[in-house]
Amino acid sequence: MKLSRPVSWFLLAFGVWSWFIWITFVKNLVKDGSGLAFDDAGDPTAYFWVHLALAVTSFLLGTAIGVIGLRGVRALRANAAAPADEKSAT
Predict the structure, then answer these.
(1) How far is CA 45 from CA 30, 36, 41, 57, 81, in A?
(2) Where are the alpha helices (DSSP H) in the chain?
């Protein structure tokens, strides 16, 4: 399957954006002082574990989507750099 240039760049940007957003979220979750993420004894609550699971899932999906986008960008660049006679043979 071949991805277009805009789709490849979109997927790559989505992967980077996902990492940026969720890293920020996890940092804020760990520093939470409102009592949602940690109880009075300092132990993690269900809210913490659910949101940590969401963040880890988003890291994994963002990584997978970003890798697909990166592979698409690399394939487009390799295809553009290939000599014209090789392009017509494929």
Answers:
(1) 11, 7, 10, 19, 53
(2) 5-30, 46-81, 84-89
For every one of its 90 residues, what pLDDT tens digit does the chain have, with 9 covering 90 and above?
Answer: 788 999 999 999 999 999 999 999 999 999 988 889 999 999 999 999 999 999 999 999 999 999 999 999 999 988 888 776 565 555
Q: Please, what's the b/e burial string for 28-62 (b: 16 or more CB within 10 A of its CB; e: otherwise)?
A: ebeeeeeeebbeeeeeeeebbeebbeebeebbeeb
Predicted model pTM:
0.77
- Cα-flanking dihedrals φ and ψ of residue 84, to 5°? -60, -35
Partners of residue 84 on adjacent β-strands: none
